[in-house]
Amino acid sequence: MSNDRVPIEGSRPPSAAGILDCCDAPATYPVLATVIVRRRAAPEWQSRLDAIMRGEALPVSRDVLAKSVGADPEDLRKIEEFAQAYGLVVTESNAQQRFVKISGTAAQMESAFGVKLRLCRSRGQSYLYYDQTLTVPRSLAGTVAGVLGLDQRPMARPRDAE
Questions:
Q1: Tens of pLDDT, residues 114-156
Q2: How is residue 131 annotated by DSSP?
Q3: When you count CB atoms within 10 A of the terminal residue's CB, does the N or C end of the chain come out lower?
Q4: What is the CA radius of gyration of the chain?
């Protein structure tokens, strides 16, 4: 990893043991991903949220909650600029739900997140996975809480396989 990139904490996928029939994802393979953005820095809200969950305080509106613990619009802007710099298309951005949805090719995603995507086939289905830790430019350190969609391995076996 170069010095200008930092790992996304918790992004190393589980072992790839048992994955068969894989090859490097074709450069033009279409990929959709969702970048999860950190919550706003609002530590005073944690005790209020805990009290609401215990039934000891009244709920707040979605708008109030989003403005208090949703994503900071500046963080969303940084993620959008990052995506566009790698040729990715921003398809949706949501401060309340703390995500930025992006689309592009496997090659663009590999470059943006510093990994090699693999295309695997199992039971007649294709899926992507990566086996390194995702990285982002240092300017986004701590801003990205996760990236969904780059590891598409099935999480459960079909009923007929049990």
A1: 999 999 887 778 889 998 899 999 999 999 999 999 998 876 6
A2: -
A3: C
A4: 18
Query: What angle do the packed helices 44-53 and 62-69 form, to 10 degrees?
Result: 140
Nearest one of 29, 6, 34, 19 to 140, comparing CA atoms:
6
Residue with tokens 């009244």: 58
The residue length of the chain stands at: 162
Report how far residue 76's alpha carbon sits from residue 107's, in angstroms, rounded to the nearest whole number: 23
Phi, psi of 137, deg, nearest 5: -60, 150
Give pairs for 113-118: CB < 8 Å, separation 24+.
Answer: 113/8, 113/147, 113/150, 114/1, 114/5, 115/150, 116/24, 117/24, 117/25, 117/29, 117/31, 117/150, 118/19, 118/22, 118/23, 118/24, 118/25
Measured CA to CA, the distance from residue 121 to residue 105 in angstroms comes to 19
Give strand ranges (E) for the chain: 5-7, 22-24, 30-37, 89-94, 99-105, 118-122, 125-129, 135-137, 144-148
